[in-house]
Amino acid sequence: MDNESVNEIIGNLLKLSNSILGSIVPEDAKRHFRSACKEALLGMIVILDNANEKDKKHESDNLKSKKQVSQNINISD
């Protein structure tokens, strides 16, 4: 499922809970919808954390690949 679909589902669930129809929906269903929203958000957090870790690893690999060249400098009076 792509991000757009997840966003659409979450948006629709939020709209449902805030609409007149939301007053007709049984409390058990509302609880399930809230849980679904929570799980979707937790899933998005995992995706973002994973992307962040990949970015950090990529950045670290780039720094390691750049070799620092050092030379001894002979200083004499």
Structure description:
- With 77 residues, the chain is mostly helical.
- The chain has a domain at 3-51.
- 78% of the residues lie in helices and 0% in strands.
- The protein has helices spanning 3-18, 20-24, 27-65.
- α1 (3-18) runs antiparallel to α3 (27-65).
- 0% of the residues are buried.
- The model has no long low-confidence stretch (mean pLDDT 81).
Describe the main β-sheet briefly.
Answer: none
SSE succession: HHH
Q: Choose one word for the global shape.
A: rod-shaped
Please state the structural category: mainly alpha
Uncertain segments are none
Q: What is the count of helical runs?
A: 3
Distance between the termini: 71 Å
**What level of helicity do the residues show?**
over 70%
How many whole angstroms does the radius of gyration measure? 25 Å
* Strand residue content: under 5%
Total DSSP E strands: 0
The pLDDT mean sits at 81
In short:
This protein has 77 residues and is mainly α.
SSE layout:
Blueprint (H helix, E strand, L loop, with lengths): L2 H16 L1 H5 L2 H39 L12
Helix pairs in contact: 1-3
Q: Main attributes?
A:
single chain, 77 residues
